[in-house]
Amino acid sequence: MSKKKTVIFGGSFNPVHCGHVALAAEVCRAGLATEVWLMVSPHNPLKDECGLAPEQQRLEMVKMAVDGLPGLVACDFEFSLQRPSYTVNTLARLEEEYPDREFILLIGADNWENFGRWYKNEEILSRYRIIVYPRGGEDVPQLPSGVVWFNAPLHNVSSTMVRDAVAAGEDISPLVPPGVAEYIKDNGLYKN
Ligand code: ATP
To answer: Are 131 and 151 in contact (CB under 8 A)?
Structure first.
């Protein structure tokens, strides 16, 4: 039986926004995956991450964002791994846990530019397929086999934009999925 194609889309999701959801949905719609897992990165104890909302709250918001959207899944898998978890280790643990799935990495062209510096990047390349999507402006890079370019439409929104708008007291509801603006307000997130 063929394995279920499962795309891993990792990020801080601080908070999740409409650009994240649109990209994940587009990956599913294009048939690149059966499921896209939005994998929330946990707090890194080695980093001073000021302004980073607690991981459980970031996960809650991702759960709201994917609610009712077929194929999109909120994932807290890294919360239970040693921190920080390198991508190569996370993927290996995912494979152990879910032998019926093929894991595929989804990364932006900005991250692809630095991929050569990732821990055990050659092992990642030899064991997993990678989907690279544009982050704006860059030329389509030459890609090794196993790495594909996915020309997803760009949405001009970032988590920084959302946090700045909250701090400025602006309405963020057009930038975030339903429920997320209320959650941020009710929990007093990103006020400064
Ligand atoms: P921040 O503004 O805090 O840096 P971000 O909006 O880039 O956050 P992350 O949680 O870092 O959000 O995002 C996870 C991944 O989502 C990143 O690899 C990033 O490339 C991608 N991403 C961010 N914004 C968009 C967008 N508008 N469209 C598609 N992908 C996006």
So the answer is: no
Task: Dump pLDDT digits (tens) for 69-78.
Answer: 999 999 999 9
CA of 9 to the centre of ligand 1 (A): 10
The side-by-side arrangement of strands in the sheet containing 4-11 is 72-75, 35-40, 4-11, 101-108, 129-133, 147-149
pLDDT band at 127 (very low <50, low <70, confident <90, very high): very high
Query: What burial class does residue 105 get, using C-beta atoms within 10 Å of its C-beta: 0-12 exposed, 13-18 middle, 19+ buried?
Result: buried
- Ligand 1 centre distance from Cα of residue 11 (Å): 7
3-state SS assignment for residue 112: helix
**Does 108 sit in the ligand 1 pocket, CB within 6 Å?**
yes
Asked if 108 and 87 touch (Cβ cutoff 8 Å), the reply is no
Amino acid at 29: R
